[in-house]
Amino acid sequence: MSGIENGILFSMERMDKITLAASKQNEGIAVTGGQLGVVGVPGLLTGNGLSHFISSRGFSSADVVNFQVVLAGGNIVDANATSNADLWWALKGGINNFGIVTRFDMATFPLPNGVWSGTLSYDRSQAQAVAEALYELQTGPLLEEPHVDVPYMEMIIPGIGLATVDATPFTDIVNFTGCYPSAIKPLYNIGPQSVTASRKTLTQNTAQDMTPVMELYDKRLNRANLNVKASRELYREMAGMLFEHYNSSTIAGHTIGVSWNPITPHVVRETNRKGGVAGGWQELNQNSVNLRVNWDNAADDAAAIQMDDAFMEKLTEAARKWDALLPNQWANNAADHVDVMRSYGDANFEKLRQVSRKYDGNQTFQRLCSGGYKLR
Questions:
Q1: According to the model, what pLDDT value does residue 125 have?
Q2: Any stretches that span the bilayer, and where are they (predicted)?
């Protein structure tokens, strides 16, 4: 939970009611929520949002058909495609700069046959082969079939145990023959050390054991983001950088993960078709590279963050070398010190500022609301 010193904290934890429209059936439908059951709703949907259905549906925030918002003056308004449309657009990536969202109305979609998903785990020595396979998938099968995706591939150095590389294929098309969809065969050709992927319900997929994930929330945390164009050469170089950079760390409980989240042109096209978002995404074949780091003790904060900054600088220089660096930051994953709102581009930034001045004339959410990324 966020906090503020000598201020007022608005806790939204009891605002957890889910209501299905009377016209909808109770089963066989889904929304573009987070990939894990522990992911909160407001931050996900006001920061663009990553779901298992990103390839076919676009960013999670693209499926918000209406925001109910409490403005700084206390007025409650709806923001959608026909009423306060500028605020509707701004909230899809503009996070906490405009008001307090008290209700999200989401588009639903049919999910009649469950999903096929899971994890393919590899030894760190296979990292480059997995990165190559991800590039082959991203420039071939994932472009041709939006319903087949690899929402993320993650390289992990745990505080205790062996470093691994995990790929997480996902599809809501389950009427294929064989043990897995043919589109993701390159990942199987490498020879994963273990496989948990299978047919299951979406609920089973999101309700997996979150104990290891939740334990990390009791530790120190840092994160950072870099968006890059799909590049075989860059992927090859990036594959070994994590293990090389952090191999000498002596920080207690140091757990490092880098996830690669493919963003195909279809993701951006579908998002724009639904009204667009404020995230500055270009219609390119790209990858959002996200660093997540945990450690045990506050005394190690400076050393840990210094290592992270140096690592992200190495990634940035590699992306620049291969002409693959993209300017925008993903608000859900960006580092604290990054100017996320300006990274969306000059036109989007100015539009966001205009929306802020229109709905928050006294700039309450710029001056008095701590946290997040401001429009300054």
A1: 94
A2: none
pLDDT reported for residue 328: 98
**By the 8 A CB rule, do 43 and 332 touch?**
yes
Under DSSP, is residue 150 helix (H, G, I), strand (E, B) or coil? coil
Structural domains of the chain in order of their starting residue, each with its CATH number? 29-111+340-365 (3.30.465.10), 115-321 (3.40.462.20)
Return all residues near 1 (Cβ < 8 A) that are at least 6 apart.
9, 11, 13
> So what's the pLDDT on residue 111?
79
d(CA 197, CA 121): 10
What's the whole-model pTM score? 0.93
State the DSSP string of 293-318.
Answer: EEES-GGGHHHHHHHHHHHHHHHHHH
Q: Which residues make Cβ contacts (< 8 Å) with residue 75, sequence separation at least 6?
A: none
Closest CA to 55 of 131, 151, 120, 139: 151
Low-confidence ranges of the chain (pLDDT < 50): 1, 211
Choose among 58, 66, 54, 56: nearest CA to 21.
66
Our CA angle for 175, 180, 183, nearest 5°, is: 90
Res 215: pLDDT: 61
